[in-house]
Amino acid sequence: MARLADYFVVVGYDLDKRGGSEGQGHILQRFPEKDWEDNPFPQGIELFCQPNGWQLVPERERPSFFVSVLTDINSERHYCACFTFWEGLDNPQLQKAEASEVDEDEVPGLVQPAQVFAPKSLVLVSRLDHTEVFRNCLGLIYAVHVDSLSVPLETVIGNLLTCVIPVAGGSQRTITLGAGDRQVIQTPINDSLPVSGSSVAHLFRQLGIVNVLYLFCAALTEHKILFLSSSYQRLTDACRALLAIMFPLKYSFTYVPILPGKLLEVLSTPTPFIIGVNSFFRSETQELLDVIIADLDGGTVTIPECVHISLLPDPLLQQTQTALSMVLDPELEIADHAFPPSSTQPSTLKIQDKEIRAVFLWLFGQLFHGYRWCLHIIRIHPEPVIRFHKAAFLGQRALTEDDFLMKVLDGMAFAGFISERGPPYRPTDLFDDLIANQVERIRQEECSPHKVMNHIKELAEQLFKNENPYPAVAMHKVQRPAESPGHNDPKNLAIFPLLDDVTVQLFIDHAAAKLQTAPPVVKAELKGMVPSGPPLGDIVDRHGHVLANSARRLEVVRNCITYIFDNKMLEAKKLMPAVLRALKGWAARVCLTQELNQHVLQNRAVLDDQQFDYIVRMMNCTLQDCSHMDEHGIAAILLPLVTAFCRKLGAGITQFAYSCVQEHMVWTNMQFWEAMFYSDVQNHIRALYLEADGGEQSTSSRGQQESGPAAGGQELLGALELASEQSRLWPTLSKEQQSERVQKEESTVFSQAIHYANRMSYLLLPLDTSKNRLLNRSGIGDVESVSNSYVTNSIAGSMAESYDTESGFEDAESSDVANSVVRFINRFVDKVCNESGVTNEHLKALHTMIPDIVQMHIETLDAVHRESKRLPPIQKPKLLRPILLAGEELVMDGMRVHLISDGREEATGALGGPPLLPAEGAIFLTTYRLIFKGTPNDPLVGEQVVTRSFPIASLTKEKRISVSLSMDQFIQEGLQLRSCTFQLLKIAFDEEVASDLAEVFRKHMHKLRYPQHVQGTFAFTVGQSGKTLVEHKTKDKNQSIKTLSKNLVKSAKRTIGRQHVTRKKYSPPTWENRSSLQSELDEDELSVSEELDQGSLTLSSTIRSSDRQTMSNVVERACCRDYQRLGLGTLSNSLTRSKNEPFRISTVNRMYTVCRSYPGLLIVPQSIPDSTIQRISRCYRQNRFPVVCWRNSRTKAVLLRSAGLHAKGVVGFFKSPNAPSAGPSQADSTSLEQEKYMQAIISSMPSYCEPSGRNTLGGFTSTHMSTSDSSDKLRQPKIGALMKQVMGGKEDVPGTFSRGALGQRARVISLSQPRVSGKARNPPGGKWGSIRGSGRLSAYNPEVGNRLSSKESPQPNGGPSEALFLKQQRAYLYIIGDKTQLKGGKQDSFQQWEVVPIEVCDVRQVKNSFKKLIKACVPSSATSEPSMTFHRCLEESEWMCLLHRVLQVSVLVVELLDTGSSVMVSLEDGWDVTTQVVSLVQLLSDPYYRTFDGFRLLVEKEWLSFGHRFSHRGAQTLASQSSGFTPVFLQFLDCVHQIHLQFPMEFEFSQYYLKFLAYHYVSNRFRTFLLDSDYERIELGVLYEEKGERKNPQVFKSVWDYIDRLNKKTPIFFNYMFSPEDEEVLRPYSFISNLKVWDFYIEETLSEGPSYDWELVQRGRQERLAEEVPDKPDTTTPKSQRRIVWPCYDSRSRVVPDAITKLLQDLQSLEAELGLPPEKWKDTWDKIKANQRTEAKLENRPSFNSSLLMSSNLSHQRRSQGVYLPESGVGSSINLAMDRETSTTSTPVAGRPSTSTLYSQFQSTESENRSFEGILFKKGALLKPWKPRWFVLDKTKHQLRYYETRQDKEFKGVIELAEVESVIPGTPSMGAPKNIEEKAFFDLKTTKRVYNFCAQDSPNAQLWMDSIQSCLSDA
Description:
The chain is of the alpha+beta class. The protein has a 7-stranded antiparallel β-sheet, covered by helices on one side. A 7-stranded antiparallel β-sheet has the order 41-40-39-38-44-43-42, with helices on one face.
């Protein structure tokens, strides 16, 4: 029973304290005067009566009523019902004014009313919340006062204060206050359920569903919530409603439904709150940054930006919203129905209120079901101590990631919920019933909203019944004040009287006395056992992530463990990788722990070393992903096991598994240990009472140690039930029995604490206590920094969630491991013992024991550590030694590392094939390379050797990484090393490698990568012994410029004195003498030896040994030889030089004074003296003035190269010569000289010299063309179009071309190439196709393009073209310049040169593009993002765009030169893009450069002599480290590769040759590509080496020597398809769609590493062959000839060589067997070729009897052969098939022979690619017989075609392979051919039908099936 009202208070306006604007209230009277003992009077009531402040008002307001809530210090809530009315009084302002008579004008213009009204409040203070009763009672008192009823007020108040009613129980009580009134009070049945009236329904109406859900989640996750409304009662209702829907959780923070304005600063409190404030104060709430504001009047909820509210987990949120909308808006569901039911009104507000609450009750049922299964009972007596195991609850619900639930479980409300509802023996309510009995129902119905609604309605009914047990009776009779007409008249309203306190007190005392004499009310407490509901276990199957085929995985885990314990180690080893993969899944981990449990006998399982090793590995793998939230699961079950498995190390020394699984974060997590401890304590206490009751003896150790839920339901059920039973019995026990039980329980907890102190020391003390391993780990979540930071307070870090936050190991630096572990255990013990009520004496005892325990354990560990060191180490694979080059030395011996897989998937087995990575082996650092050599971790491919290496000089990026290996769960330091040879080494150091050693390794690597000087590179240091690299002083200090110049002058004289025989014009040598081109020169100086080990090798060059010293010979080596071949002048003395030669070789730069980066000898116009050259050179960047580098032998047009102009030279360059100038300034004279220079070049061209002044193509005489006019037609449109696209001109619009140029082009093509089939004729077609512009349009002078395109191209405006004028205006010289350079220059219309502005790629662009290209080709980690696919990354790198631009410009220049105009390439500094363009132009225009000698000469001349900065661009030394790696030369080689792909018959060298150069130009193995110019090379004495200098025959200084040498031995560099046409100019396509990714970027051979160090590969292969030879020949079984070729492992070109290479190899081996002297492969090849040619001549028809494609004089014969070449590495097998479609038109046609037609053919699909053909019997359709047909399998078109006979041209039918589903062996059916074995039949099943075939015999059938299958799998 409780008092209805504790206090009655009258509060009035305080007239005395009226200071300033604000008035104050004060208590006039209160009853009773004395505080109740059980309930002191609350302070500050006067503030809450007028929350907006006490103010006088001019007009009387209506009485108001609201209920405030005050919370006292014991967090008891007091409900203060305030009834306020206004009383009149004379205006105090006026009285004051009359009294003082001072300033009359104090408030001018404001008329003060004579009477004002002051508020007065009647307040009831109660602990019960009966709003309506309070309203009625206070209203009655007011009515008695106003209407002056006969009842004394004292009686009414006395009765009110003495009224006692029950708190709960569902009874009705009728009360009367003695004024003729009567009220019925209904008490709720169960007071634990909140009473809400209809407030919840109102709240939803005011704010809406989503907003209230936000508030609900915010309140549960402890945010600050503020309600605003202008109505006080609404504020109180809203707050009450929010608390009601939170049931069964209780809000335990600040709760103030109505906050007075004076206390607004409470809103800035840091703790969460629910507060209501009148909207009057809205402006003050605006600056609150972290408060969620709900405006009840406006219906909005405002959430600040900085506040993140976690919402309910996903399906629940949706279901809750649906249920709420069905309650609040039932019409929504049927709004679209055609025949809506007549009425679907929502329930009445009171019912609706309960329905909404039922929804939330249902929601909590979903959220908390099964919580009782995660309670740990730690003590039962004297009162239960219960702890909730959060991690287990979340883990088993598979909600560990869920933000909302985590926060709720961590919150105060939930802690209160557990302490209130945890005890197993207490009264139960609706929620307990829901959890216990209705979870199943909720689970089954959650997907059907209507069933959910029914359930909710049932719950709502119960809630309603709880509040209104007798809904019918509501007989209130309360006097209300009479609304008389004069009621508001101030005169007749008396002031509320002072009451007689004695009378009231008498009433109170009388009632109190009566209560004391009355017998006490005994209310039977209905305690009972709280049922737990269904356990959690079943749910995981639905929510948990069930892995695919998990049953199979569990099987694997079980088998493996069985093998281990049966000692079948080999079997176990095979299964291990699969087991480790399976253990990623939860089910497999649980399975593992269960299996291991079965092998523990009497707490022990002694294993041998290998078994122990495997078990530990599995445990580590299982624990590796345990987050701290996973505590409940795996780590908990493994804890008892790690102390069970052990191995004997020696006499009396045993090593347990725990010493090997310490590296996991979970052991440093305090919550884990607490949870484990509590679950064990619970088991023991349960056992204690079971024992005491003589129950079953379940104290077997396993029963004790299995933890919480993982141990299964029955045990836990027992514990809670037992506790409930004990609690029930407790009152019946005697004192002794009670204290005995308390003591027993306490000592149980104490013994467990000791046990856990031991356990923790086991897992926290490392085996080697000298190593601070535990402290070396950082806290959870910070795994990144593990590798190199010594985190000292690691455990404190992981303890952040724990209760006390003082740091764990503050001074761990000074102390050792033991101290830190002791401290950790102490903190644990303090916490759990305090929580579970261990006595202080015991606690002290524990604190003294712990250091001893730790110390003892350390001592035993020392012994174990000592012994474990003596163990034979685990058999790690032995380190394999790499093969080294001659002169290559190890800098650091092998360090054991693991090679981790990167983003390339082939090696990991992801794309099929074996998982070669990760692999274990060693990394070696030599003076030349970084080498990894090892074996794969996967034992199934364990016998393979994996090698990855790259030259140290090609290292571009090194980055430290932390790697976690899947095998042993240690996080290890690693390195990621990236090389510009497209290789990536991602290595993790093995734990045996000390970290300082890894550091030494890095330092050495850096020293080798960036030597101080270029002489520190491998090419120079090779062969110098001495392990460490000594800093060499530069030995050439003595050779100053003076001596250099002396040598130079001397040699120059000597050379000039000697006459050189001028060679006749170069023509490509014929087949017979190509190989012995310089035989007579070579023989006398090259001792060609067959073995690499003997013999000395010198530079292969045409220099005789007598002139070895001469400087000029060196220069002549590259340039002069070429200049003579081109007829560009000879080095003769000035007297004999013939004047008619237009060019001369100038020695102006012989001292390298004019231009450091140019060669010593340069080709300049005859008429220009050296002095002019010196002046001109100053206008160009780096002094690189224009020089001639090539001349077209047919048109005599020349190609020049130079750098861009200096900025100052630009305008002067274009000034017209007669422009007025102030005086002959320096710049002016230079510009004149420049013009003279240009003019001299133009004059050198024969077409210019011709007096007739014909157009520039006059020199172009062609035997094939009838007139030069037709040749014009051929050429011009192309150039115009080209030019426009290269420059990206204004009218680069398809429209302008399509009319003229392209239409014309179509005609041209039909003229020149009638053989091209109709398909190719549509424009753009033929040889060219339009070239895509670079996309950047820019304004340039449009005439240039049009002038170039000559008369065939229409004017931009569509007018007639003035052919003649344009023809005369054809420029003689085009200058390709940089757009940015050429601003401001004005083109003179009469000059004879023309500037073509283009955009070049900047070096920075190349650098960045290359970085992205490497990342695309060799990604560092696999990614599944669609934006990061290989092709997307490749596109983003823009590498192909750069190639496209370079090729495009080069092709333009080739066109111009071919039409007879000279071209000067003048871009950037003249050593990057210029070099690329110039070299490509020569390669395309001149067949000589496509031979071995020619290409070498081209590179030596254009790249080396003309000073491409190899060292700088390759960042070869420390000085150039910052500039980074820029692969300009690689870009050039890639362009050559693209051309090679399009014209495979035009190059003497193979693709491998290009890759070889690409690899070695960065490898620093040879000196060829070192240093930046000839000048630097001469200064170092590198350019030319003396023969006698060579100390070591194996050391090659020049890459060219090496290639020559290798080429003599093996045809690896040779292109068998080489079959050049005379004078062929190549014009490759340059669209991006025509470019292919170079396989150099993506291929890799893991079996032997890069194949570009030939000796290494050869020696490696010999070693492997030697190993493979069996000891004695195995005669019994025939050995299979088939072998598997693995992608990215085997070298394809070696394992599957092309036919020619194979035949040459066979020849060699036959010669060796017969003992014949071996013949050089080249001689063999030439012989065969000669025979081939003579045969062809005799028969005069194409010969296909051999598998070699030979050159022939008949051009049409070449055209009619389809050539199929798979893109393989070195050579290729060549399939020949007669191209029947085109052979009919293959009559020789006049016209310039052009190979391009051939390419267009064999790239098109017209030639049949017959991958496999033969006769098969095919069964016809229904009732048709079997018939033989000729079948052709075509891989390219992906078809299987069949013909009547072999000779037929038209096929009978086609089977598309795309539709084929399977190829399977068949059976003979009716009418099948006779005498054929059954295995020869097979069926081909397509999507449409099944084909039946029959081959001649079974092998043949098998062959067909394999071929078709391979086609299918290729697709």
